[in-house]
Amino acid sequence: MALGNVGKTAAPGPASGDRGHQHHRPSSAEPRVQRALLKMHYCPHCQGLTESKPCMGYCLNVMRGCLASLAEIDAHWREFVRSLEGLSSRMQGPQDLEQVLLGVHSLLNEAVGNAQRNGQRITTQVHKLCGAPSRRPSQSVNIQHSSVKDPLPLKTAPRPTNDALAQRRKDFLSGLRFYRTYYGGLADQLCVSDLSRSDGTSCWNGTSIVHSYTLRVVGSGIKAQSSNPEVKVKEADPVINQIIDKLKHINQLLQGKSIPKFGSLDQIETGSGDAEGRYSGDCDDEDGCAGSGGDEIKRIGPRVSKMSPDVSSDQDPHHGLHHHSPSAKDLGVRSSSGARR
């Protein structure tokens, strides 16, 4: 029966994975909740009224009182769903992780082809910048190649469309939206679907069989229970408060991360960026940053951009790689005034 599962209801985990599932310990173990549920469901049996059901208003007061702490999750749970929807909406088109990863092979092919076409020039430039490599005698065991032909290359089986990451993400959010009002509407849903009878028919009001429940029906949440005539609620369940804190933390993480716009990686490196990106540019000395004496952080390591070989071999190899060699100046040697030399 639904009533027997009120205190054992396992909500869809609001924290990471099913941590909400694991941390949730029902409030129905408390004596005040047990008494209220016993009075609503079993006391009519003592009078031989085994077929009677609670009045709708009476059931709402009891269930909203018993699940008052759980209703406090509602606002944060809704925000969690909205945050996931917002994050998912930004993962579209060229900013879709799956699409980006599927395009990596073409970039690798292009890079390998470029290296093959300009191999000698690239090698010369690398030797000029880094010096000739020192070679050591090989210590590996010589491998005798077998005369057996290499096996045929493996062919990747085409994936079904519904197996795409975007489709899985869509299905996940669709299921999540179904539970958007779970915490705020759980008490009402239990009364409407299973536990009570609507006013106008014979129903149990906690003391006798009547046609209408006449006491005030309170709302959901802890504050609304101060005037609840059926269940007295003083404070929220500490375990529920822990779950709310976890939800708040997760929401902050979700809302603080956004997909970078094209060209914004350079802004991240210099410590700037728009409000939407929320990049601070923070770094430490190990990352190649040092303070200038104030609040400003300056990067003292060499900035590397796209690397491409020279079109003409008579150009300066430093210019051909589009970045400076790691000289003393680029490594951040400073004068006594703190300025870069």
TrEMBL record:
Q: Name one GO biological process term.
A: cell migration
Give the start-end ranges of region Disordered. Answer: 1-31, 134-160, 264-341
Respond yes or no to whether keyword Nucleotide-binding is given for this record. no
Listed under GO cellular component are:
cell surface; extracellular region; plasma membrane; side of membrane
Localization per Swiss-Prot or TrEMBL:
Cell membrane
- UniProtKB keywords: Cell membrane, Glycoprotein, GPI-anchor, Heparan sulfate, Lipoprotein, Membrane, Proteoglycan, Signal
- Composition skew (Polar residues), residue ranges: 136-146
Q: Topologically, how does it sit relative to the membrane?
A: Lipid-anchor; GPI-anchor
Q: Where are the transmembrane segments?
A: none
Predominant subcellular localization, coarse grouping: membrane
Q: What does this protein do?
A: Cell surface proteoglycan.
Would you identify the family this protein belongs to, as annotated?
A: Belongs to the glypican family.
Name it. Answer: Glypican-5
